[in-house]
Amino acid sequence: MNGWLVAAAVLTAGGLGPCLWAGSRGTAGRRVAAQNMATLLLCLDFLLLAQGYGRPSYVDLALVTCVLGPAGTLVFVRLLAEELHDEPEGGPPGARLLTPVTLVATPATVLPLCVATGPGRAMAKLLVIGVLLGLGATVTTRALRHG
Amino acid sequence: MADTALVTLTLLFVAAAAGAAVLTRDPARQAVVLSLLGLGLALLFTVLQAPDVGLSQLGVGAAVTPLMILLTVRKVRRRRKRDG
Amino acid sequence: MTGRVRRWALAAGLAGTAALMVAAGTGLPRFGGDQHPYGARAVAASLRQQTANTISSVNFDQRALDTLGEESILFGSVLGTVVLLRQTRDEHRVRPRPERVPAALRRYGAGLLPVTLLIGLYIVAHGQLSPGGGFQGGVVIATALHLLYVGADYRALERIRPLGLFELVDGSGEAAYVLLGGAGLLAGSAYLANVLPHGTFNTMASGGTVPLLNAAVGLEVASAVVVLLAHFLDQAIEITDNRKAHR
């Protein structure tokens, strides 16, 4: 039994599951907010899996997710602009959750992984992913809330 | 143990996302569910130890497929609005 | 044939397929086992060819001809889409209005473009070592350019996207793969044989022709996706048909 894999399983069931639930019902804004949250959690999931399987090269999946995830969300924001415009002031309810979740979950995942990896290039890669996730979450949240 | 649980959970996620994508009728909203299905498939390939395939799925499903679907929806809607 | 007969024919066909699938499934190795006859041989061959990523060794060395087929399918389907989505005589172009984009989003798009491009190049260049390769990296590179569309607007993307050049690179990538295969014949071996020195295991210079074929696929896929999306974007944003004028 491997703690990292247990954490990944918990994140999949408790994080991605609710995202799918929120993403398959309700207004377009709520769905896009859920999709955005799912890319963030998936990226953290990949980091945990890479450590849990003992395969440092799997970190590349997280690296790609942390740049393509926000890009995908911005595609939805641009092309669903009319539908997102009808959202109440402050954007869809899910959009408000993203920043606090990012601020808590990203360091809570990346920092223990940094401790486990030790200093070096692998740790620099983890930190870059963490920073890119933070930037992506900030920008997509703002874009979602201001349509 | 954790490994079997991960494979089972991810399979369930993919099945649920695929079902939700079929049951969503509006194409623009369907694109969002389809994107979630793509993320689930990338995770499934990874827990089955096929990260190369996972990376392909991620690359195509994250931004390119939603962009193509939504651009098509926009073109069709624009034409319908003008004709209707 | 009446509807009823058709349904029976369909049911018989489906039952036959299901029976064959189940019969084939019983002959498979157990799920999740660590013994697999093909896997063991593929891993041994990739170690012999000094390629750390066995999947790349299978795709670009042991079964390189299959990948040529896949690459040609992408090439052909993009070509078909270009023909279908071309601007016809009864359509005309309207310049889109510039979009008003928040400054933060604009800065994010401009800043992330080079980062994403770099990640794409990294994925292409490390195909022989870690998960990824020409296809995966090529798609990331193509997505990077479209950050200009979501971070600014279509006019900004058009300025840095000389479509003719991308069409040329698309064809060149496909041609490079075909010609690299010919190098095997010139060296007195088989088509697409890995005839280059295999290098040192688990370094950038390893795998012989694998990194070169990866680069060719990377060029082809990145420009194919850019050309494909260009025609979708043109149709959705710039091109309108004149049917109203005829009425």
Brief synopsis:
Chain A has 147 residues and is mostly helical.
Describe the structure.
With about 150 residues, chain A is mainly α. Chain A has one domain (about 5-145). Chain A contains six helices and no strands. Chain A has helices spanning about 5-25, 30-50, 60-80, 80-85, 95-115, 120-145. In chain A, helix 1 packs antiparallel against helix 2 (about 30-50) and helix 2 (about 30-50) runs antiparallel to helix 6. Chain A is elongated. The relative contact order of chain A is 0.16. Chain B is an all-alpha fold. Chain B has one domain. Chain B contains three helices and no strands. The relative contact order of chain B is 0.13. Chain C has one domain (about 35-245). The mean pLDDT of chain C is about 90. Chain C is about 70% helix and about 0% strand. Chain C is globular, with a radius of gyration of 24 Å. The interface of A and C includes residues 60, 136, 138 and 146 of A.
Percent of residues in β-strands of chain C: under 5%
Question: Class by helix and strand content of chain C?
Answer: mainly alpha
- Percent helix of chain B, as a range, is over 70%
| Structural shape of chain B | elongated
Number of domains of chain B: 1
First and last CA, distance of chain C: 44 Å
Radius of gyration of chain B in whole Å, from Cα?
Answer: 16 Å
Summarize the biggest pleated sheet of chain C: 2 strands, antiparallel
How would you describe the oligomerization state of the chains in this entry? Answer: heterotrimer
Strand tally of chain C: 2
Low-pLDDT parts of chain B are none
Query: Class by helix and strand content of chain B?
Result: mainly alpha
Q: How many structural domains can be distinguished in the coordinates of chain C? A: 1
